[in-house]
From TrEMBL:
It comes from Niabella yanshanensis. Residues 38-349 form the Dihydroxy-acid/6-phosphogluconate dehydratase N-terminal domain. Belongs to the IlvD/Edd family. Signal peptide: none annotated. InterPro entries: Dihydro-acid_dehy_C (IPR042096), ILV_EDD_C (IPR056740), ILV_EDD_N (IPR000581), IlvD/EDD_N (IPR037237), Sugar_Degrad_Dehydratases (IPR052352). Residues 360-554 form the Dihydroxy-acid/6-phosphogluconate dehydratase C-terminal domain. One of its GO terms (molecular function) is lyase activity. This is IlvD/Edd family dehydratase. The keyword Metal-binding applies. NCBIfam families: PRK06131.1, PRK13017.1. It is an enzyme of class 4 (lyase). It holds the Pfam family ILVD_EDD_N. Its EC number is 4.2.1.-. Keywords: Iron, Iron-sulfur, Lyase, Metal-binding.
Amino acid sequence: MKKKLRSHDWFGRKDKDGIIYRSWMKNQGMPTDMFDGRPVIGICNTFSELTPCNAHFRDHAEAVKKGVLEAGGFPVEFPVMSLGETLLKPTAMLFRNLASMDAEESIRGNPIDGVVLLTGCDKTTPSTVMGAASVGLPTIVVPGGPMLNGRYKGQTIGSGTHVWKFDEDMKTGKMTQEDCEYAESCMSRSIGHCMTMGTASTMAVMVEALGLTLSGAAAIPAADSRKKIMAQLSGRRIVEMVRDDLTIDKILTREAFENAIKVNAAVGGSSNFLIHLVAIAGRIGVPLNLDDFDTLGSKIPLLLNLMPSGTYLMEDFYYAGGLPVILNELRDLLHQNVVTVTGKNHHENIRGATENYNTNVIASYGQPLIHEAGCVIVKGNLAENGAVIKPSAATPALMQHTGRAVVFESIEDYHARIDDPDLDIDETCVMVLKYVGPVGYPGMPEVGNMALPKKILQKGVRDMIRISDGRMSGTAYGTAVLHVSPESAIGGTLALVQDGDQIELNVAERKLHLHVSDDELAKRKEAWIKPVPAADRGYVSLYVNHVMGADKGADLDFLLGSSGSAVTRDSH
Ligand code: FES
Ligand code: MG
């Protein structure tokens, strides 16, 4: 006898409500036997033409549906808020938590027994995983896949990473506007998300490392037919997961999070990984703090030679063997007492798929590209709750440096003065940007790798220490101290920094210190004027009143945890 599923409370009813629940679905041409108690699989689609990285997801949804039907399930596709990194102002990050609420309530309120998350562009992965984690059904992720390698005038170019380079080349006169427009088409020449190890690729690797995807899913390019096969197989698998009651909480254990931290370090993943992983852990109830990333990840070697830290792109990663090769290299460091969506651990999943076809792209654990690559957490009076730095994207010589602060009071102040020839700045200075944290901007945008002053770029200098409470695009590089917490808008010490102060960064000692006495800081705090909140109505007002610090994943405080999947009342 078939187990009674959650969807039975809708479709299995023999009363008036049962008529309502089934009849309207039948207007889509669904035969009566679809409602016979088979697993109903929600396909959570973040398709949008305003999220170009996810604009091919109709095809993926169709492939998932095929798989669900083949396995005897009943597929139902539904949309959730799609967050596109490139267009959405003031930053997609402002809406990650809103999209997570959309995903959560859409899953819980509907007759769904298991859910497939179609994710691609940066925020579409954490938002839907956070939402799904707060419900707790069997869940599988189908990452949308990276774009094919960019090629411009014989050179390989990477999404995002080359935007910063082109911008610098425009400023120094190496590129014209015409060159730039041509390069744009060369960079984004196929469907898919950024093909550097930016945040989207980082998130795809994260979900595979957490065990939420079929093995090898992360690296397959969007344009490769094998991506659709992966989607179809995921459709088949989610039906079995429902039958096995393999719920997301059984996969997202503390061990799974620890594995994801180590893998992220080995692939040179984005600093955004920290915020999103902490937020997901908060939903599933697994304790995870910033120090865990340093303790578990900072000593892990860099094995993947992808931009922005290295040379290659996701397409090359796929041809070299993809994430299974990295999981195999790290096998002695990873917990194997975990279960993934397959019902097996990583070790069992990757059996027979561990050959490295290109050692220039994937290095071995014994001969890594960098010996200690994971993100580092620095603390001090300037960041009592911590700040993040990604050494693999930074300049080694700046890892221990004390310099004079050049302070920008807002992003507008930065834009107005950065290229002013009279700005009192040289390459030994420390650039400080305030009010770009979760509350301050609002939404914590990716402005932390603020471009250097033109006059310094013209000297050939390409990096300086930059400190802010904002984030940095995962596709970017530079010695950026990010996510300073507590943020300036709520009165963190960052708000009190003044031009001319000395700031010390010492990565080896995990130290970020403002050389200003406590007395002087207390005086400055007294005179500090709290900025006016960004909005007094709508979602933004809810956000600024409830968002937690970057160190807590920047989730809304009332979204922590899960409400389960039960809904006891009917709609009629
Ligand atoms: Fe969508 Fe980079 S802009 S993944
Ligand atoms: Mg990004």
